[in-house]
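Working notes for the structural subgroup meeting. M.R. asked for a predicted model of this chain before we commit to crystallization trials. I am recording the input and output together here so anyone reviewing the notebook later can reproduce the run.

Input as submitted:
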Amino acid sequence: MHVLLHDDQSSGPEPSIRVGGPRFGLIVSKAVGNAVVRHRVARRLRHICASVAADLPDSTDVVLRALPGAATACSVDLEKQIRGGLRKLGTLSESGPAGGESGTAGSDS
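Returned structure, recorded in token form:
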């Protein structure tokens, strides 16, 4: 997981445009697989991000880069990894739901 932290104090006169809620960006390269596999991984990650969004502060920006193993990993494992990474960063509270409790089990196809 790569982390980029911004110092919002020194952003200068740039206008800050934000509609609301946390924002997610996904990077799914050709190394993950062909177009069908990449789109499947992106759909699964979007679904996971939607369930994680409720547990994040509105000002949070998250960028996820899918590695080739994401193509064969189950959705529960992907969610556990995402939540674990966000907890390590201090963005997600420890009291957030565990990977298998959010209803993503069985949606890994």
